[in-house]
Design goal:
The chain is built from 3 helices and 9 strands; from the N terminus they run E-E-E-E-E-E-E-H-E-E-H-H. It has a 5-stranded antiparallel β-sheet. Strands 3-8-5-6 form a 4-stranded antiparallel β-sheet, with no helix packed on it. It has helices at residues 59-63, 84-93, 96-129, and strands spanning 2-3, 9-13, 18-20, 28-34, 37-40, 46-50, 55-56, 70-73, 77-83. A hairpin with a 5-residue loop joins strand 5 and strand 6. The protein has a single domain, classed as Jelly Rolls (Sandwich), CATH 2.60.120. It is an alpha+beta fold. The longest helix has 34 residues, at 96-129.
Length: 133
């Protein structure tokens, strides 16, 4: 970890490096300063790509849960970690309506990730059963 000129901790990852894996403890969310990050379901389905100026990994620390997906550097990237404490303070001081919206969105995000992987798994089963004749 390197400290930037702004006093923030900075993490550097090379292309292909795992940032975290499903089941890992979720202590941080990450702000993408440079580069891109791929998000994968537990079964390896690419769920999305996060780019510069975006945040990922916020679900686990916000909901006191372990990681539900895997994050891997799609390119060389520089990330700024955002601690669980900071996330929770921001959420706690937010308007109650915004807190409810955020919680709802985080729960729905997890549901969508699970459903995407189920769909992908079922599609693979169905295509493996088709006859190529």
């Amino acid at each position: 970890m390197v400290t930037s000129k702004f006093g923030l901790n900075q993490l550097k990852f090379n292309k292909g490096s795992k940032i975290y894996a499903k089941g890992d403890k979720a202590d941080f969310a990450y702000y993408v300063h440079t580069g891109k990050v791929n998000i994968y379901s537990p079964g390896g389905l690419l769920l999305g790509q996060i780019g510069e100026g975006e945040i990922f990994g916020e679900r686990g620390p916000s909901l006191d849960e372990s990681r539900s997906i895997t994050a891997e550097a799609a390119t060389s990237c520089i990330l700024y970690p955002i601690s669980e404490k900071t996330l929770k303070e921001k959420i706690k001081t937010a308007d109650p309506v915004l807190r409810a919206i955020l919680r709802s969105l985080l729960i729905r995000l997890n549901d969508i990730n699970v459903k995407s992987e189920d769909f992908w798994r079922n599609l693979n089963v169905m295509t493996s059963l088709t006859n190529d004749d």
